């Protein structure tokens, strides 16, 4: 586990005091002879948006089905706000709102009628709360239209609305951006951040897309073939790379490389004559010195870009170079 | 119990919010009127009918409009579980703080309400159409007989709807479920003259035979048939519950 340095000291304080909203403890699911989820353990805490990341077929949906009690658990247990989903289903699930796979509704009913359906299954959701959630997700206009006329983006929003109705402590979304266009994805990302902050709830989002998790989540749990692979706090990486890698396009790369190698705090990592490029690592503080040195040699600099080592590169390392679908 | 009202309300809305909802009651009313007109014009047996209510008493059973009620109720029942799977809304339904048992009971109660509604419609249309045709008078005894036949018709429909309900839970298919319910009603009139057949559901579901053709097999009574039917319905529900409670929702 790499939970090295949390970003905010006060959040780590909180973590020690509060028990996790969601705990998976060695959860295993077998169907036939196949072990689809294998001894999976992780936690999600209040205010966190945790990404459950893995290629298609990794077992994300299966894990989420176990968390929500839709399928039985062969070994291990899931605890939500301290209640076991196996032994105290109703007490556990009352804290969960979710969308599993696709947001499904009664197509011949309006969005409002569908939310009423969800509300009647609770003891607490009032019409005022329904209107509040509708406003939060900007669903006012579509409210009395039949769900069958909704776009996927609208169904996703209605899905989040029904999930939030009963003020859950844990929101679970299985591949929420699947099928959405880029604008829809951005919208979804903004909602999630807003919701996790405004309602202070824990969010678990599954995805097979690294870039998505990277932009949306505060932490990522990587699984493959049903097994836990690694966990990372997103943001840790920034501290690690205090010397970012830069790519320079210049007129004479090998001469430039010779100049830079003489500098004390600069590491030249690559020289590419054919593309007139060179790569080096340098701290922000030493950058002016680097520029001055190049100017002294009259080397023309056309372009400087930072080569971000993305989560994707790390992901490929974690999963042993397996392509993520 | 307050909680159960919410769930049953939901189930009722799922049935009634469909555009096609009024097709079945409409068809039932239309068929009932049509049958009344046909009988009046072409049948010699109607001469002795004294009133609309007496006519209703004679028609409510499984050999009359009770059969329509049953067929249409089986069709409605078949979708009540299967459609949740087909629409994917089963997940929407089961990730709430309600046990699967409660969900299933609420669905079954909606079925009971539906059959009740259909029976009442059939009763009302028979009474009105019969009244127009044969006159609205009628004795207290005729009313009691009509209510009894209405209850028998209701029980008959409920028995086969319960069968369809169970098959719907087990197979998640409305087609198979309708098939099972209808095959039951089709073979109900056939009697095998063997003692064990007393304990089969089919000859017991239609209680109206005791007033017309008599016991299907020697030794059978209304009470006996009622008990056998109740045991079958209980078994259907138990089987449905046992499977539904543990089933993986994939
Ligand atoms: N009901 C099932 N029966 C057999 N295999 C299944 C079943 N459900 C899922 N699987 C298999 O389990 C693996 C994980 O599936 P899933 O949890 O849907 O993955 P993900 O959501 O990460 O794409 C897949 O290989 C899938 O084929
Ligand atoms: Mg999936």
Automatic annotation (TrEMBL), chain A:
InterPro entries tied to this protein: AAA+_ATPase, ABC_transporter-like_ATP-bd, ABC_transporter-like_CS, P-loop_NTPase
SMART domains for the chain: AAA (SM00382)
The organism's place on the tree of life at top rank: Bacteria
Molecular functions per Gene Ontology: ATP binding
Keywords: ATP-binding, Nucleotide-binding, Transport
A Pfam family matched in the record: ABC_tran
Domain ABC transporter: 22-250
Family: Belongs to the ABC transporter superfamily.
Protein known as: ABC transporter ATP-binding protein
TrEMBL record, chain B:
PANTHER family: INTEGRAL MEMBRANE PROTEIN-RELATED, MEMBRANE PROTEIN
Keywords: Membrane, Transmembrane, Transmembrane helix
Organism listed in the record: Saccharibacillus endophyticus
Protein name, per record: ABC transporter permease
Membrane-traversing stretches: 21-40, 52-82, 103-130, 150-171, 178-197, 217-244
């Amino acid at each position: 586990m790499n939970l090295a340095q949390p970003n905010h000291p006060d959040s780590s304080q909180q973590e020690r005091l509060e028990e996790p909203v969601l705990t998976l403890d060695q959860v295993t699911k077998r169907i036939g002879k196949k072990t689809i989820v294998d001894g999976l353990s992780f936690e999600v805490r209040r205010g966190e948006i945790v990404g459950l990341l893995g290629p298609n077929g990794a077992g994300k949906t299966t894990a989420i089905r176990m968390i929500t009690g839709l399928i039985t658990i062969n070994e291990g247990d899931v605890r939500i706000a301290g209640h076991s989903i196996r032994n105290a289903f109703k007490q556990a699930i009352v804290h969960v709102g979710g969308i599993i796979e696709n947001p499904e509704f009664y197509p011949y009913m309006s969005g409002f009628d569908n939310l009423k359906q969800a509300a009647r299954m609770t003891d607490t959701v009032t019409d005022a709360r329904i209107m509040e959630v509708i406003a939060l997700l900007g669903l006012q206009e579509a409210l009395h239209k039949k769900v069958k006329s909704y776009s996927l983006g609208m169904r996703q929003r209605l899905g989040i609305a029904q999930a939030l109705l009963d003020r859950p402590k844990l929101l679970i979304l299985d591949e929420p951006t699947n099928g959405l266009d880029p604008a829809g994805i951005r919208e979804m990302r903004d909602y999630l951040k807003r919701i996790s902050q405004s309602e202070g709830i824990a969010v678990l989002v599954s995805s097979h897309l690294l870039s998505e998790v990277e932009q949306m989540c505060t932490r990522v749990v990587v699984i493959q073939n049903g097994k836990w692979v690694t966990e990372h706090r997103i943001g840790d990486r920034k501290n690690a790379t205090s010397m970012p890698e830069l790519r320079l396009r210049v007129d004479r790369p090998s001469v430039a490389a010779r100049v830079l190698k003489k500098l004390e705090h600069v590491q030249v990592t690559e020289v590419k004559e054919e593309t007139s490029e060179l790569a080096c690592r340098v701290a922000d503080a030493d950058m002016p010195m680097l520029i001055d040195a190049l100017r002294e040699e009259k080397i023309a600099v056309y372009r400087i870009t930072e080569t971000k080592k993305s989560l994707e590169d790390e992901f490929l390392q974690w999963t042993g170079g397996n392509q993520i679908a | 119990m307050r909680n159960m009202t919410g769930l049953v309300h939901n189930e009722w809305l799922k049935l009634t919010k469909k555009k096609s909802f009024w097709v079945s009651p409409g068809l039932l009313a239309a068929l009932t009127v049509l049958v009344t007109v046909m009988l009046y014009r072409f049948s010699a047996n109607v001469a002795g009918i004294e009133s609309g209510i007496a006519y209703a008493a004679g028609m409510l059973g499984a050999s009359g409009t009770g059969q329509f009620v049953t067929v249409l109720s089986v069709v409605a029942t078949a979708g009540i579980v299967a459609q949740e799977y087909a629409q994917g809304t089963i997940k929407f339904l089961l990730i709430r703080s309600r046990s699967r048992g409660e969900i299933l009971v609420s669905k079954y109660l909606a079925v009971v309400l539906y059959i009740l509604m259909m029976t009442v419609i059939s009763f009302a249309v028979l009474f009105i159409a019969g009244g127009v045709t044969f006159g609205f008078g009628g004795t207290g005894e005729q009313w009691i007989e009509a209510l009894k036949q209405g209850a028998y018709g209701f029980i008959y429909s409920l028995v086969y709807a319960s069968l369809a309900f169970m098959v719907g839970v087990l197979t998640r298919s409305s087609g198979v479920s309708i098939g099972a319910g209808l095959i039951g009603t089709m073979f109900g009139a056939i009697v095998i003259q063997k003692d064990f057949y007393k304990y089969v559901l089919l000859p017991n579901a239609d209680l109206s035979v005791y007033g017309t053709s008599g016991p299907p097999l020697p030794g059978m009574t209304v009470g006996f048939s009622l008990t056998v039917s109740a045991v079958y319905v209980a078994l259907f529900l138990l089987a449905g519950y046992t499977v539904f409670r543990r089933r993986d929702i994939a």
